[in-house]
Amino acid sequence: MASRKMTFFEMWRSKKERGELRRRTNQLRLDPSQMSQLLGDTGVRRALQNSRIEGLLPPIGMEVFRRLTPASLRWIEQPHEAEEMALEMSERSEEVTENNMPKQTSDLETGKPLPIFFGDPSHDLLNTPLEELDPFYESQKTFIVVNKDNIVHRFNAEQACYLLSPFNPLRTAAIRIYLHSLFNFFILVTILTNCVLMTMSDPPAWFKVAERVFTTIYMFEVIIKVVSRGFCFGKFTFLRDPWNWLDGMVISTGFLMEFIDFGKVSVLATVPRVLKIFAVIPGLKTSVGALVRSLKRLLNVIVLMLLCLSVLALIGLLLFVGDLKRKCVIWPSYEIDNYTDYLQDHVNYYYRSGSLDALLCGNTSDSGRCPEGYTCLKAGNNPNYGYTSFDSFGWSLLSVVRLMSKDYWENLVEMTLRAAGKRFLTFFMLVVFPGCFHVLSLAVAVVAMACCEQEEAAVGQLKQREGEFGQILEAIKRSEEDEGASRAALSPEPEKKESVEGPDRDQRACSPCKSADCLLKWNCCGCCRWIKQRLNIFISSPFFDLGVVICLVLNIIFMCMEHYPMTERFSRVLNEAHLVFTLIFAAEMFLKLIAMNLDGYFRVGWNIFDSLLVAISLLELLIVEHLPCVLMMRVFRLAKWWPSFRMLIKLIWTSVRALWDLTLVLLIMVFMFSVVGMQLFQQDYKDNVCRISVDCHLPRWHFNSFFHSVHVIIRVLFGEWIEVTWDCMEVSSRTTCLIFFLMVVVIGNLLLLNLFVTLLLSSFITEAEEKNNLQIVITRINRTLGNLLRKKTQLNPDQADNEKVPRKKYLDSAASHELVLEVQDRGHLTSESCRAPTAEAEETAEDDEETEIKRYPEDSKEQNGDTPKDCCSNDGTGRVWSNLRRACFSIVQHKCFEYILLIIILLSSVALAFEDIHLQHRQVLKTVVARAEQVFTCLFLVEMILKWIAFGLKKYFTSTWTWIDFLILQVSVVSLAADRFGFSELGVFQSFRTLRALGLLRAVSRVQGLKVVVQALVRTVQSMFDLLLVVLVFWLAFSILGVNLFGGKFHYCSNETSQEIISSLYIANKSECLLLSMEEDSPDILWKSTELNYDNVLSGYLSLLHLGLSADCVDVMYAAVDATWGIRSL
């Protein structure tokens, strides 16, 4: 029976186990004695019988790695011919099934390292043709070659190009060259050099010569591969590997472009040259293979996505065809000769201030209206150069894709609703957005499933490898036990002699290391050891770490004080403080070096980090140059004593290592699309820039240089692609631009999605760490303060006996905690746990009360007052009161009471929704809402009184949920009183009335599922606060760096009258701006700062928050690009 596949969340939860499994399997090794037993001991082989390992190992007495000889090749050819005949017979008879065929061993596939049970080949067998190790290929005329990294490479044993046998010296030399690391390094350097030359927007005259040199090198690589592997006939030849097709494309395009000018089509020669990087680096080849497999799984989803988008595009075509051409056109007072030309003239349209497109309108009752003097007519083109519309299936499909990607979608929805009517908002809310969301969710699910399957397969191989290693060790142990039993009579004296001689031999072997040991450990004299011991005690003290942390925090505070502008005195104080803290940290490093010596000091990773910071800080003092990176890195020293901060850094580092290959693939794709975009559209942007710019200057986003092309591609990866696509289609070919940008969007999103899923599945382990010195000293301080306070407030035994003993116990937080645990364990709530805890507690309230009264009769008297008999008697007013409480208790515990309250809560919330801006003009509705508010307040007041009578005031006010009900009710009562006495227009009461929106919180306590969720959220507040503090400190480092880099540089010269920003090309600093203001005699020319800047740490926080959380983060990028760098000298 096949095992059940793990879900994504099960795989996500097993990150720790998978990480430990990987570490264990990477450490699996067999020592030489174990290898000799595995290969030459019959007892071990007998124990491994009927296992996969036994079938892969050679017979006893035969070498594992055997050279390929003509005799062995003839021995392979004989069964090969017999197998061909048998295969022909089987094809005719159709009796051989697929299950009867031998299976390929996954551990011996091409490009994988040798399994551990084969050992390492000798040096003379490296890069040499060897006989096959996999039984699957023994009869297929192949041989293997193992390089120095023990990576298996498989070749065809047939004659390469019908000329070169495996023993031909030319082919053997080609194989050695092909597998040599220097050859791969040379090809990689050639590709990278070629890529660097591709980034030149204006290539020099010798560029053609360099291209010919690169083509020659690639041709030499192809010749080496063809000579070593063969060309196309047979397995493992040159053309049988799809990665080698890139070489064929590079060579063919290189030669064709020498004789034919392909124009823009020549950009196709760039793509295979960049993709060759994947073929050279094995790790990238594996990552690309995984991406291709996930893309195959996505084919059905892509087809479904296209069908859904086509349906939505057709619906949009039928609903909104021609609507986006309706514009506000001024109606002339004179007679028009040519009505068509008049409608096509954009001068006659109404434009909003700062808008490039005319104001849209509609002729329905709920569509947009035109200003006075203008008429709504179909005129001119569609918005955005005519590319935003539903007039044809293609443009409608592009609009739907734009909605699905959520790129500037609000503008499209706004224009459509203004032209067609607000009623079509339901089309977007109920059809477009849910449809696109479900399609994208399906794509995410398929990619996550593919990644889970690949990860599960890798885990299966790791478990198999670990199990086989355990089998080998068990077999060797069993064989040694059998041999030990047969040799029990042997004398142990030789072993004793060896053990006696061992220390002398070790001492002689270590004698050359005495000088190094003395240099690194400083144990040459007793005085040095005495000083080290005293200093070691000093630096190991928790209070020493406390002092370092205090200095570090003070240093961070001084760093946060830097701002713009600063006085010279304040700047001098900060520099002196920086010098003092640098000397303090240098002294800390010096003391630790003496106490721990060089060897012990540099064995600790944090000490290496500290020493680097101190060295760079001292170098900064020598060169008198301000290095802001040093200041930023000091913040990260807090992670040494802060476990949460350290966990965040470990998480980031682990994620970077896990995503290294995929991140490199993403960077290569960004580079490739940037180069292709520059080569495709560079000339078009130069020639047709006036179509997209009024002043005929290039916009910020263009393909005129490699640097700007990278910016455009990164912007597309962040989801903003439609605007640059419009500009591209306006200056170049529409088809080319659409194909290019859609490819960037699809491939980029696929890579980002795989990055995200891999990040979730990557292994990082939060190990339980011991308390550091800072935590120890804080614990001691808290314990000391607690002891001091306890001595002041300690009571004597007589006072303790006279304390009141609690008499009633209802609910505590343990009930809700058990409920949360049940949800976590079972995934749902049982019927017993869903019962109202208040009701369950009240069922036993009377019994508990009677029990407490029996135990503490005096306390019962004190609690019930002077005449408890009257309250609890069976006659008179006591009986009436008791019956009344029982009746109220039965009412509030009834299910119908809870349901009625839920309905009242929902109705009161609905009534609040009618209090909009139009309520003042609807007197009837206003009266109904006011009366409803009074009725609901009275009902909630009745509910509170019933619970007071049923539970009592003490029980009622011991629950957090009833406190919430009480406070919300007080808000309604105060609001009604303010309306009654005419104070409702006061600002205080208007603000107080907004708290009525909290009325929905009443429903939380009455729905058990919501109650559990809220309680779970409350319990996570402390962890969330700790995480928020860590993130704020992490951002503090970058805010300090931003202040040092950009402080006082996000300024510009502005003309307040014309609202014009004067370019930094003309006005570079504040002095020039003020000089211009004096020359023009205009006080409206001012030197201003951008809203988001880095003039101080708090402003830097706001800018970082905008960059990290806002979709529109280009404002900060524009300010950084336009930053004026000549200000601080003024």
TrEMBL record:
Topology of the protein relative to the lipid bilayer: Multi-pass membrane protein
Official protein name in the record: Ion transport domain-containing protein
Secretion signal span: none
Organism for this UniProt entry: Gasterosteus aculeatus aculeatus (three-spined stickleback)
Ranges where the Ion transport domain occurs: 180-453, 542-770, 894-1124
Location in or out of the cell: Membrane
GO molecular function: voltage-gated sodium channel activity
Keyword Signal: no
Pfam families in alphabetical order: Ion_trans (PF00520)
Comp. bias (Basic and acidic residues): 493-508, 852-869
GO cellular component: voltage-gated sodium channel complex
Transmembrane portions of the chain: 177-200, 298-321, 424-450, 537-558, 579-598, 659-681, 738-761, 896-914, 934-953, 1027-1046
